[in-house]
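Morning. Coffee machine broken again, so started the prediction first thing and wrote up yesterday's gels while waiting. Chain of 212 residues, entered below exactly as on the submission form.
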Amino acid sequence: MSHIADHGQLMDNTYRTQRLFYDATRKYYLLGRDHLLDQMQVSPDDRILEVACGTGRNLAVMKQRHPHARLYGLDISQQMLRSARRKLGLKARLARADACAFDPQTLFDVPSFDHIVFSYSLSMIPDWQGALDEAARHLAPGGTLHIIDFGDQGALPRWTKRGLRAWLARFHVTPRDALPIALQNLPRHGGVLLQDGLFRRYAYYARLERRT
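Came back before lunch.
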């Protein structure tokens, strides 16, 4: 079975039912998503891609805030895309694809993106470094990579960290403690990295601006 079929089936099985109440429950622990959206500086006609867009929650907020931006989303799960299509209709172009190997021209008929967003998705992508590298390849000059995900919880009590990670593992979620270093070493970014730990490092936020 191919990688996209294998991991896609795992995600479909995980979220076949959960997608129906995903947005109502995740707002309590996917902290910092709106912080990421608040930090985005979007011009009219900018192309924005969300990698692993899930139910389309973030894309719907982006459309409200930036009605003239062009929105795109990809996800490996057909089940999640069902919810996203229902929520977004014609507000965004959506496609099933592997975050580690996708072609914007084939999927969306565009060469690159002005903004690429990872919102609590790297912790669910097995080859998360490959997904970052792939995103960097498709970021337009002057574009920005935006990331929010689980941090290292280093400023929280140890029992909180242990309990959180044990619970997340039930949903195939693994916080990427090496993410800050991976971003610093990301090939082809040619830009400036801004990063911060939020909520006592419960979450990690980063913005990578490509200048060339």
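The longest strand covers residues 139-150. Going to sketch it on the whiteboard this afternoon.
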